[in-house]
C-alpha cells in the first residue's frame, strides 16, 4: 500500500515506561484529529517495560503510527528534538504520553498556526485564563513549579506564562532556526527553545486543564529541578557552557565544603596530623562528588552495581591526575602573575576542566 498524503502534522510523543498508555493515547489522537492528515511518532528511550515493542505492534495496524527507538541515550529534551527532526510535516506538536495533556487542543493549535503564518509556536498552557492545573499536580509540586516558572521567565527573558509546559506545537521552519542552539539534556525543551529564539518568536498560548495520570508514574523528580538550574545558568552564559559542565562545577563546589568540614572534624577528633586530615577530606569529597555527579550530573547514565564501583575507582584516578594538573598550572601561573588568588583560580579552572572531560570520557562514557 502507498501512503499518498504527506502529514500536515506530526505529533511527537516522548515515552519512557509508558506501555499501557500507548493504545489509549493513539485512540484519543484518532478522535481529536479526525479529518486531518496527521501521524504520531513515539520516541522511546528503550524503556524496559517494552513500550517500543507495543508501539511497533500498533504501528503494524496503523500506518500513521511510527516508532523512533533510541538506545544508549536518555532524556526528554533530546527525545523531543529527535522526534521533531524525524518529521517532514510543516507543523509538529509535542505532547506527553500519559494522557495528562488535553489532546482536543491540537486542532485549535493547528488552525492557529495555519491561519497566521507569522506565528511560530502555540503553547498548551495551564496558566492562562480558564486553564487550570486541575488536580493533576500536588500542592507542593504546584508551588515549586510556580516559583521555577517566575525565575525562568526572568532569566530566560520569556514572556509566555507557561514556558515549562511540555505541550506545544511549533512551525518546522521556526524550529530549524533554533535547533543548533538547543540542549539535549533536561526536561524543559520549550523554555530552551523560547530562550534560544531570543524573544523573536510570535507565541500564542491556549488554555487547557492538566489531567491526572492514570497508568505508570512521573519521571520528574527533584533531580530535574537541579538540571533546570543548570539550564538557567547555561542560558546566562549564552549557551557557551553546557548544562552538564555547570552541574559538574556545582557538585565540585559542594565537594569543597565537604572537604573543609571533614578536615575540621578530623583535626578535632581523629588526628593532629594536618596531612592525614587533608587526605581524608580529599577522599570523602571525591566520594561525595562521585555520588552526586552520578545522581544528578549524569542521571541519564547513572552507574549501578559493579559499574558504580568501577566508576568510583576511575573517578579517583581522574581526580588524582586533575589535582597534579591543578598544582602544576597554579605554580607556573604564580611565576608569571604573582597573585595567589589568580594563580590558585587558574589551577582550579584547569583541574575542573580536566576532571570534567576525563570523567566524561572514562567514568561516565556513553555506551
Ligand atoms: N524518551 C523519553 N526519555 N521520554 C521521557 C523521558 C526520557 O528520558 N522522561 C520522561 N519522558 C516522557 C514520559 O514518558 C512522558 O510521556 C513525558 O515525557 C512527561 O514525563 P512525565 O514523567 O509524565 O512528566 P510530568 O507529568 O511529571 O511533567 C510534565 O509536566 C511538567 C510541568 O509540570 C511534563 O509535561 C513536563 O515536560 C512539564 O514540564
Ligand atoms: Mn506526566
Question: What's this, in brief?
Answer:
With 367 residues, the chain is α/β, with parallel strands linked by helices.
Could you please describe the fold and organization of this structure?
- The chain is of the alpha/beta class.
- The chain has two domains: 9-217, Spore Coat Polysaccharide Biosynthesis Protein SpsA, Chain A; 243-363.
- 53% of the residues lie in helices and 10% in strands.
- The protein has twelve helices and seven strands.
- It has helices at 22-32, 51-61, 76-85, 106-115, 139-155, 172-178, 189-196, 222-236, 243-269, 274-297, 306-336, 340-361, and strands at residues 9-15, 38-44, 65-69, 91-94, 121-125, 168-171, 203-207.
- A seven-stranded mixed β-sheet has the order 3-2-1-4-6-5-7.
- Helix 8 crosses helix 9 (243-269) and helix 11 (306-336) packs antiparallel against helix 12.
- The chain starts with 8 loop residues before the first strand and ends in a 6-residue tail after the last helix.
- Bound molecules: guanosine-5'-diphosphate-alpha-D-mannose and manganese (II) ion (MN).
- Manganese (II) ion binds at residues 96, 98, 100, 213, 218.
Amino acid at each position: 500500500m502507498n501512503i499518498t498524503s504527506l502529514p500536515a502534522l506530526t505529533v511527537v510523543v516522548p515515552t519512557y515506561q509508558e506501555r499501557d498508555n500507548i493504545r489509549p493515547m493513539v485512540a484519543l489522537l484518532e478522535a481529536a484529529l479526525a479529518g486531518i492528515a496527521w501521524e504520531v511518532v513515539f520516541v522511546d528511550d528503550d524503556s524496559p517495560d517494552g513500550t517500543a515493542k507495543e508501539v511497533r505492534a500498533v504501528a503494524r495496524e496503523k500506518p500513521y503510527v511510527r516508532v523512533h527507538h533510541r538506545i544508549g541515550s536518555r532524556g526528554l529534551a533530546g527525545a523531543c528534538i529527535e522526534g521533531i527532526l524525524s518529521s517532514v510535516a510543516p507543523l509538529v506538536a509535542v505532547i506527553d504520553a500519559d494522557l495528562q495533556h488535553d489532546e482536543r487542543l491540537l486542532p485549535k493549535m493547528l488552525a492557529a498556526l495555519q491561519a497566521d503564518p507569522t506565528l511560530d509556536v502555540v503553547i498548551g498552557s495551564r496558566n492562562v485564563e480558564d486553564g487550570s492545573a486541575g488536580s493533576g499536580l500536588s500542592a507542593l509540586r504546584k508551588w515549586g513549579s510556580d516559583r521555577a516558572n517566575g525565575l525562568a521567565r526572568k532569566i530566560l527573558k520569556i514572556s509566555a506564562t507557561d514556558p515549562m509546559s511540555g505541550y506545544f506545537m511549533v512551525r518546522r521552519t521556526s524550529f530549524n532556526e533554533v535547533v543548533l542552539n538547543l540542549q539535549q539534556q533536561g526536561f524543559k525543551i520549550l523554555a530552551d527553545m523560547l530562550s534560544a529564539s531570543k524573544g523573536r518568536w510570535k507565541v500564542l498560548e491556549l488554555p487547557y486543564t492538566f489531567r491526572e495520570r492514570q497508568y505508570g508514574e512521573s519521571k520528574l523528580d527533584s533531580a530535574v529541578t537541579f538540571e533546570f538550574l543548570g539550564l538557567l545558568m547555561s542560558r546566562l552564559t549564552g549557551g557557551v557552557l553546557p548544562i552538564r559542565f555547570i552541574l559538574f562545577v556545582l557538585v565540585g563546589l559542594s565537594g569543597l565544603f565537604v572537604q573543609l568540614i571533614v578536615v575540621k572534624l578530623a583535626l578535632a577528633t581523629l588526628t593532629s596530623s594536618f596531612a592525614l586530615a587533608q587526605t581524608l577530606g580529599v577522599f570523602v569529597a571525591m566520594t561525595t562528588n562521585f555520588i552526586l555527579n552520578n545522581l544528578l550530573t549524569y542521571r541519564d547514565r547513572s552507574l549501578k552495581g559493579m559499574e558504580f564501583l568501577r566508576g568510583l575507582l576511575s573517578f579517583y584516578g581522574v581526580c588524582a591526575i586533575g589535582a597534579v594538573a591543578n598544582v602544576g598550572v597554579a605554580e607556573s601561573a604564580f611565576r608569571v602573575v604573582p597573585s595567589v588568588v589568580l594563580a590558585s583560580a587558574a589551577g582550579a579552572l584547569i583541574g575542573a576542566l580536566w576532571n570534567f572531560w576525563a570523567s566524561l570520557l572514562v567514568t561516565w562514557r556513553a555506551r
